[in-house]
Amino acid sequence: VLEGETTQRLEVTTLRELGNYTQPQSPGALLKAAFCCADIVSLKAEGTLAEQLMQQHGGGFELHTWSNLPTGSGMGTSSILAGAVMAALWRAAGSEYTTDSLVHAVLHLEQM
User: Fold this and answer.
1) What share of the chain is helix, strand, coil (3-state, %, to 5)?
2) Which residue in 5, 11, 73, 81 has the most C-beta neighbors within 10 A?
3) d(CA 29, CA 36)
4) For residue 8, which of 86, 49, 63 has the smallest C-alpha distance?
5) Which of 111, 110, 61, 66 is nearest to 88 (CA)?
6) Position 1 confidence tier, pLDDT thresholds 50, 70, 90
């Protein structure tokens, strides 16, 4: 960690913790929304978060992101991050996607 940088760790273990992605100031809101938008898990499913992840993917996900740009910089950081995260999640889950589907997913994610 460089001087002046802050590190934040967020571990989501329940669907309730994942479900607050609609609150933009919630820690990791964009990342949480990406997991839902990429259909990695469903907030409406019967099972727990752990059960869904185990059944569909054989276990959980660990995702690391970072940015040196300040929040609200106006430089499109959230769109770039959303695209990178969506592509990484789909790839890790073995899902196929096109550039067009990724662009549309990012537009959808940013409206969630």
Assistant:
1) 50, 0, 50
2) 81
3) 11
4) 63
5) 61
6) very low
In one-letter notation, the amino acid at residue 78 is: S
Q: What is the pLDDT of residue 43?
A: 93
Q: What is the pLDDT of residue 83?
A: 93
Task: Give Cβ neighbours of residue 40 (< 8 Å, ≥ 6 apart).
Answer: 53, 56, 57, 61, 89, 93
Q: Are 106 and 82 in contact, with CB atoms under 8 Å apart?
A: yes
Statement: residue 45 has pLDDT above 80: yes
Angle ∠(74,80,50) on CA atoms, nearest 5: 120
Q: Which of 76, 59, 62 is nearest to 110 (CA)?
A: 76
Q: Give Cα separations from 25 to 58, 72, 87, 102 (angstroms).
A: 31, 12, 23, 24
